[in-house]
Amino acid sequence: MSSSSDLRAARRAGLGSFIGTAIEWYDFFIFGTAAALVFGEVFFPTASPVAGLLASFATFWTGFLARPLGGVVFGHLGDRIGRKKTLVTTLVLMGVSSTAIGLVPSYASIGMAAPALLILLRLVQGLALGGEWGGAVLIAAEHAPPSRRILFGAFAQQGSPAGGLMATLVFLGVSRLSAEDFAAWGWRVPFLVSAVLLVVGLVIRLTVAESPEFLATKQRGEIVKAPAAEVLRTAPGAVLLGIGASAIGIGAAYFLNAFTIAWTTTELGVPRATILSALLVGTIIQFVAQPVAALIAHRVGATRFMIVALVASALLTPVFYLLVSTGDGSKIVLGIVLINIVAPAYFAVLAGFLTQAFPARVRYTGISLAYQLSATVIGGSVPLIAQSLLSSGGIGLVVAYHVGLIVLTLVCVAALGRRIAKSQGVADLPDNSDLRASDAPA
């Protein structure tokens, strides 16, 4: 195959990765938005408003509890039967479960069966996303030329703001309904839209070719029988550092969406439409900022760039909360814009960065374990912990918690970057890695 054909295949894989992850993140984000706005009222009406919100956020977290299992199951399949088949399966699971959530009767209709069904479907969402992210990153990065892996890994990361953008737009539309109509049926519309997106995603994803690096690994007879066991045996340090390096990349979205929506619409009395419009602006900023960040990191080195972006995030996070706490719409927009300029810069590079920590034969499982364990232990608990801190000690504790996660991420990014760079014999991690089965750090 010619180099021009290779590049076309890489671009097609990048587009397929972007579209698929955008749809899956849309499905995941609409749950977080609905949890903040209406699930307490619909599925936990016997509790007080605060207790109902906490129960709603706890249900939100159950999706994250399933993500490591999804990472192991689908990582195993992705490392054994291929990236493409696995990604088609995860997309179908996510689309079906999300559509079904829109059909679950309320607590008033079927009692405790309603939250039980909601939790079950949320677990299926978590399984699907747990397997989706790693495969989407790899289908893009492993098609890319060796000198462009950070750039092509960013295609999958673009799915997050694109999914958030779609979720916010749909909820912004239905939020203009009366409170009664929104609670009765309006919140269901975003979930039912998932059925249409599922069809679109499948059409696009089925046109993407299998990863050439996986095919080469298979041809060399290097397919591993138990990828999870192999990862934990050969690269436990990379998994642990990957968990920490992913922390704020996952958590930031839920500070800005689920927690901020609940905080502003309840305690601060900000109208739903105002905060959703502000978040829409922030998501657009993120969508534009991430490709620019990937281009810069491609030139200056991934580790160095990520550290600078994380330091800037730590400095601007207290400013963000100060501006939002005013309850003024224009200041809320300013705070969200500021944080969405710096925080996504690190997130854009994260996918390509993590792929270089594991060899191809177990890469799907390795990056899925690191990222999804981080999602469970750290990311998914953000709204619940932040809301509890707000209720018990005020917004200052939430700020300290947010900044603490940024510092944890920074330390782990620096350590993992040194580890990968040392294995390649370079001073920093540039976008020129071509790690093969025997090259990744143990």
From TrEMBL:
Membrane topology type: Multi-pass membrane protein
InterPro entries registered for this protein in UniProt: MFS_dom, MFS_sugar_transport-like, MFS_trans_sf, Sugar_transporter_CS
Top-level division of the source organism's lineage: Bacteria
Alphabetized Gene3D superfamilies for the sequence: MFS general substrate transporter like domains
Keywords: Cell membrane, Membrane, Symport, Transmembrane, Transmembrane helix, Transport
Subcellular location per the Swiss-Prot or TrEMBL entry: Cell membrane
Membrane-traversing stretches: 21-44, 50-75, 87-110, 116-141, 185-208, 238-263, 275-298, 305-326, 332-354, 366-386, 392-416
Annotated ranges, domain Major facilitator superfamily (MFS) profile: 13-421
GO cellular component: plasma membrane
One matching Pfam family: Sugar_tr
GO molecular function: symporter activity
Family to which the UniProt record says this protein belongs: Belongs to the major facilitator superfamily. Metabolite:H+ Symporter (MHS) family (TC 2.A.1.6) family.
PANTHER family per the UniProt record, alphabetical: INNER MEMBRANE METABOLITE TRANSPORT PROTEIN YHJE, SHIKIMATE TRANSPORTER
Annotated function: May be a proton symporter involved in the uptake of osmolytes such as proline and glycine betaine.
Name this polypeptide is given: Putative proline/betaine transporter
Annotated source species: Saccharopolyspora shandongensis
